[in-house]
Protein: Dihydroxy-acid dehydratase
Amino acid sequence: MNAKTNIKQRLPSRHVTEGPARAPHRSYFYAMGLTTEQIHQPFVGVASCWNEAAPCNIALMRQAQAVKKGVAHAGGTPREFCTITVTDGIAMGHDGMRSSLPSRECIADSVELTVRGHAYDALVGLAGCDKSLPGMMMAMVRLNVPSIFIYGGSILPGNFRGQQVTVQDMFEAVGKHSVGAMSDEDLDEIERVACPSAGACGAQFTANTMATVSEAIGLALPYSAGAPAPYEIRDAFCMTAGEKVMELIDQNIRPRDIVTRKALENAAAVVAASGGSTNAALHLPAIAHECGIKFDLFDVAEIFKKTPYVADLKPGGRYVAKDMFEVGGIPLLMKTLLDNGFLHGDCITVTGRTIAENLKSVKWNPHQDVVHPADKPITVTGGVVGLKGNLAPEGAIVKVAGMSNLRFTGPARCFDREEDAFEAVQNRTYREGEVIVIRYEGPKGGPGMREMLQTTAALTGQGMGGKIALITDGRFSGATRGFCIGHVGPEAAIGGPIGLLEDGDIIEIDAVAGTLNVKLSDQELAQRKTKWSARATNHTTGALWKYAQQVGPAVGGRSPIRAVRTRNSAMRTSRRAIVAFVLGASALAVPALAFDGAPVNQKDATIPVVTTLPGAAGAVRSKVPPATQETSLSALQYAAEGGHPIAQWKLGRMYANGDGVAQDDVRAFEYFSRIANAHAEDSPSAPQAQIVANAFVALGRYYLSGIPNSKIKPDQDRAREMFSYAASYFGNADAQYDLARLYLKTPDASREDFRYGARWLGLAAQKGQHEAQALLGQMLFNGDRLPRQAARGLMWLTLARDSTGSEETWIKESYNRAFAKASDDDRAMCLQMLEQWVQGRRE
Structure:
C-alpha cells in the first residue's frame, strides 16, 4: 500500500472511489477523463461563485483554474463546481435586494450539499461579492473539512476628470442629479468610467470588509485578500492555495481549529480598525453560529468600542483597497494592531502557523498614510459603534468612521418601506434635522433585510449627509456615509419599538455613550403596543417566504441552517395512515395486558366518560422549564414569529398557564397550531420532535373542551385526530394515553373501541406515562373489562404512585385501595414483577 492509498483510507472520498462496490462510481470518473491515479488521490472541491451578473464575480472562473493547478501539482484531484451569487450593486434599490441576505444561506447550503453529496475531502472556496464571502466561510466551518478561502479581489478605482471614483460616487451622483447639481451629460460620463475592471467594490464596503475578515480570522493566506482582481499575482495566490490545502489534509487542520472565539475577536478588531461595513456585525455572528460559538452583535460592538480606527479607507476615508494592498496590505494593518495588543497572536491559520508567526516578518512602512500606527490612530475607538436603548432593546449599529459629530437629536419622520423614503428624498419633502425612520425592512419584515444605500447616497448627494439622521431595522451598504443606524431590534414586523414610532417623536442618538432612545415613557410605548398589529406580507410562497418563517433576529446575525417541509394544515392528517398504525399496534405483544384469547369481562367499569382532559398546558407539564421573569417576552415573540418551535411552545405554555402573562387560551392555541402546521412531518428523531408532539396533544385537549367565547368549539373528532397523529407518528406517550381514554369511554358509545383503547393504554404505560399506568393498574386489579390480574395491576399502580405529583391524589388513593385489598401472594408477586420491570429497563 503506497502513501496515497494509505491517506485515502481515512478520507471521505474513499466512499466513492475505493473497493469493488464503487466500480459504478469510478466509471463516471473515467468518463470525465480521470486516470486511475487521479481517482485514488484526495478529492478537493473548488467552489466558485462565478456569474455574469456583475464585475465582482467575472474573474473567479480564471482564478479557479489556478487553484486547480495548485491542487493537482500537490497530488490532489480538483473537482470544480459553482454556486450562486446575488450581487448587491444590481439588486440595490428595488425588490431584488430582498434576495441578497437570504442568498448567503443558499450559498452555504449549496456548497455544503455538494461537498457532502460527492464526498470531497477538502475545499477551496472563491467568492467575490458581499454575501458570497460570508456564505462561503459559513460553509467551510459547517463542513469542517480542510479549507482555504480565496477572495476574487477588488475592482480598480475609476477616474472621473482626474478624481478617483467608486460605485459609491455613482449612487451619490444620483442624489446630486436629483437636485440639479449634476447634469444628464455628467451623469452619463461618470457611469461609464466609475467601474473600469473586474472585481468587487473597491472601498471598504462589505466585500472588502469580509475579505479583510478572511485573513484576520485565519481562513485565507496572508496578503491574498488585498490584491485587486486584475492583478496577475492573484493567480499566484490561487495556485498556492491549491497546494496549501493539500498540506492541510496531511496536517488534519480544519476550519473549526482555526475559527475560535479569539479568531472571531481578531476579525472584529480588524473590521473596526479599517472602518469596515456594519454588515460584519451580521456575518461574524453567523460564522460563529456555524461553529457553535456564541458571538453576537453585542460581542462585536464590545470589540469595536476598544479598537482604534487606523485605516483611512473609503467610504469614511480617502483610500481604496488597491491603495492599502500597495503599501503593505492587510498584514500591515494587522501588524500594528498586534504590536499594540489589539489582536490575539496565538490563533492558528491556514498556513499552519499562528497569526504572530505569519506577521513576524512584516515591517512597518513609514512612507504611507493609508494605515496609521495603532498608537496614533485616526480615532481611538473603532469605526463602527453598537447602540442600545428603549428604541433598540436588542441593539443597533452605526458606522462612525469619518464622522465628526457623534450625537444627533431630532423628530421622527416614519416610512414603512424604503421606496417611500427614497421618493420623499428625491422630491425633497423632508426637513433638515429630521430623523428618517425606515421600518418593516428587517430580516422577517422585509423579508430579507434590504440595504438602504440608494436613500443614504441620495441624501449625501444632496448635501444633507450631516444634517439628517436615518434609522432602520434593515441594514446599510458598506458604502453608506452619514449618521445611519441599522439593525435596530426587535424589528417592526414583530412589534419592536421602531414599529411604534409616530411622526414627530423625538429621537436621541448618542454614538459616544452608545445609546438610541425615543423620548417616550414606558407607559406610552406599552399603550401604543396594545394598538399595534402585525402587517400582512406579499411573500406567501417561495424562498423569501421560507426565509421569513425561519430567520432569527439580527442581533444574532444568524439565519436558520435547517429547512423544513411545511403543510397548509398538518392537523388534517391521513386517517388511513393512523388506522394502519393502530392495526399494526394491535398485533404487538404487550405483556401487561396478557391478551391470550381469554374472554374479556364485559361488565361496565369505572372508566370515566371522556368529555374533557387536563388543560392544554398540562400536555407537557414539567417537560419544558417554565419561563422566568427574566425571560425577554419580546425576544421569545421574535423567535416565535421567526418560526422557532421552542419559542412558540414556551409562549403557548405561558399563555395557557398564565405564567408571566395574562392567561389567553386563544393565543396559546394559535402558537400550538403554528408548531403543528409547520413541523408535522419533521422526523420523529429530530431534536424538536417531542415539542411538536406535545403541541398536537395540547391542541387535542383544547378541542375536547373547546375555548369559551372563541371559534374553538368542542370537537371530539378533531381531538381524536390530534391525539392519533402524535401517538402514531411521534410515539408520544401522553397522546397515547389521551387517545386510549377516548376509545375506552366516550359520550357516543358507537365510537368506543375497547381493544384499541387498551392497546394504546398499554403502549403509554410501557413508556412510563404514569396516568396510563394508574388507569391500566385499576382495570387489571379490578378486572374492569379485562381478566383480573391483581398482582400485575398492583405493579402498574405502584409504578404510577412512585412517579406521580402531589396534585394527582386519585392515583395514590387508587394504589392505597388496591394495596389494602391485595393478598400476601399478590403483593409478593407484584414485587417480583417490579424487579423484572426494573431489570428490563436497565437492559
Q: What stands out?
A: The domain at 42-156+197-359 is CATH 3.40.50.2300 (Rossmann fold).
